[in-house]
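Pasting as-is:
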Amino acid sequence: MDRLHPNPATRPPAALPRRLRLGHHHLRPFHWREAALCVPALPLILIVGQWLGYPVQAATAAGAAFAVGFGAAREMRGRRWAAMAWAMAGMVVAAFAGTLLGQESGVFVLAAAAAAAGCAALALYDEDIWWVVLQVVIIFFVAGYFHGGIDAAGERSAMILLGGTIEIASVVALARLFPRSGAPFLAPAILPPPQRGTLLRHVLRAALCVGGSLVVIQRLGLANGYWAPMTALIVLKPRLRDTRARGLARIGGTLGGCLIATLFAAAFNSQSWIFLAGATLAAGSAFALQKAHYAGLTASITATIVLLISLGTGDAVANAEHRIAATLIGGGLAVFVALVIPGGRASRVSEADSVGVS
């Protein structure tokens, strides 16, 4: 019998065996207020888009709102909502540039590698700016995959601007109505200046991982292949141990999220309103799990994105399969490059780097 808690009913969860606590640990902390703050804009965008007959454009706008919404959990240099606003502005520019540059594969690979290198460097200096730039770089990857001319670039940028604006307006309005829900909870750690060797190696590895993953998916012709460079950039850390742990968590989370989305699609086939409800629920879980175990966060993000794209284009099963393949390519390449190029000191990105994205 426990001396401090003689009654088993009062024993705290931490006292339970690890095998019984694993699921509990993966879902804590659960910030339900953040979900209530950030989710409402997504179904609004999707419902209006479906009603007007623009499901693909609505899915793009909802995806942008989903990415921007993660900025509600943080401040930026003491300015509330600045992370959301800067992320949206950068995403609009990245969408336009990526759509155009994606027409020239060689140019796009070089530009993406350079962007990844800059993003990796910022991860060692300033977490808030790194988060904003990460969203911008991810949108650049996505836009490059859906490349096109001026008209396509303008349409994608407009949808991202629309979705981001609706999300920010909704979040700010709800935060004023319910102030407790509007408090930020992701505080950046104070980062000491990185060693020059650590910085140079990390930047080089990011450029190689992203550039290499883009070349591989282009050669394979993999659908939705932008998931590979995205995974490589997010998984890569200055030390091999951190990269390996993050890679396993992301791969496991992606597999879990794809499985959830696939089973959901098989159960409800092409019923768009049920897909909309599923995407909304998955998005709420992602917003709430930003400080929980990374695998749980990744599973929620993956399920959300698969269901959002399926609302626009259909075939959730194929979307899930493509993401699994791309995740394995990106995550595997990140671990391989981390093995080949020696790392530096311990990772400087804190628990607050739960991506949100993605």
